[in-house]
């Protein structure tokens, strides 16, 4: 049974109504198909952008065969655009599948669709069909949808970054357990900075006596082997990251404090920098833009807890590295903020905000250079050769000056590749 959509979406003919065949003759050139994805089912609703009328809906299971059925249903509208709610989360697989088949897909945040429901006369009524139509409505009317691009390199970097986090956590766990065992086997325990080779040398000085000591000695040897395994995997992970970053032609690694691993994390959690209209939008996404608080006597700012925390952590690492490098511009900027009377924590936050601007400008310049290298209608496909041949965006003194204010200019539209 099909549920009646919200009145604000102006119900039209359903896909099952025979009169819809005649109605399709007057359909607009571009049709918006909103999708409300769930783990086991997806609901798609076709909405005419000019009238915001619901022209049909279909509910499918989350299987490839059902994806094909939904695409056949959408074939009634040759000119179409898919608006998927949370395309980076629950709708990621469907969005990737549609992009691989040449479909145009935009992402709509759940917060935007919820706002459409709350502002409608239906008092915020919610079901899958309403959510799907609301996603299409946001894409058509509110302009809050953003294009989804299938970037295999970015996906690969995200996978490698997640794997690195898991390997690092496993190594920390093994090192903590090894410390506990060595504390029971050696007087005074082991030093804080413990490598597999150092632990093995310390363990060689122990002559276990008794069942308990022999068991500790055996477990310590197993943990040393685990440390070596984690170290080898982390080394291979860093090498793969460096190769992929070089293939993208990114110049982020030219910035002091940004190595191959940090550059990979920045690229993995940013995607296409051109999807952020300004540097301020990127800083807000990274959680480095302070939040203004209005009080009775004055206006002050507080730390933002929002945004992508992995991206925020990467910028934090770059800031700490530059603060420790007296020759870097970040160190100079940090010391200038300290001289102004800011606390070390406040000065560090200011530096992270400027670094966010610098990283965004660098990514934007890289995209522009890759687009020029690809030519009209070409594919970017940046390589090490194209990276070396192009100009270095961070070479100018103005771009490397981190105290530079945030850019308010919108992103230059990129040619469709």
UniProtKB/TrEMBL annotation:
<dbReference type="InterPro" id="IPR003346">
    <property type="entry name" value="Transposase_20"/>
</dbReference>
<dbReference type="InterPro" id="IPR002525">
    <property type="entry name" value="Transp_IS110-like_N"/>
</dbReference>
<dbReference type="GO" id="GO:0004803">
    <property type="term" value="F:transposase activity"/>
</dbReference>
<dbReference type="Pfam" id="PF02371">
    <property type="entry name" value="Transposase_20"/>
</dbReference>
<feature type="region of interest" description="Disordered">
    <location>
        <begin position="362"/>
        <end position="417"/>
    </location>
</feature>
<dbReference type="GO" id="GO:0006313">
    <property type="term" value="P:DNA transposition"/>
</dbReference>
<feature type="domain" description="Transposase IS116/IS110/IS902 C-terminal">
    <location>
        <begin position="251"/>
        <end position="335"/>
    </location>
</feature>
<dbReference type="GO" id="GO:0003677">
    <property type="term" value="F:DNA binding"/>
</dbReference>
<feature type="compositionally biased region" description="Low complexity">
    <location>
        <begin position="386"/>
        <end position="398"/>
    </location>
</feature>
<feature type="domain" description="Transposase IS110-like N-terminal">
    <location>
        <begin position="33"/>
        <end position="187"/>
    </location>
</feature>
<dbReference type="InterPro" id="IPR047650">
    <property type="entry name" value="Transpos_IS110"/>
</dbReference>
<protein>
    <submittedName>
        <fullName>Transposase</fullName>
    </submittedName>
</protein>
<dbReference type="Pfam" id="PF01548">
    <property type="entry name" value="DEDD_Tnp_IS110"/>
</dbReference>
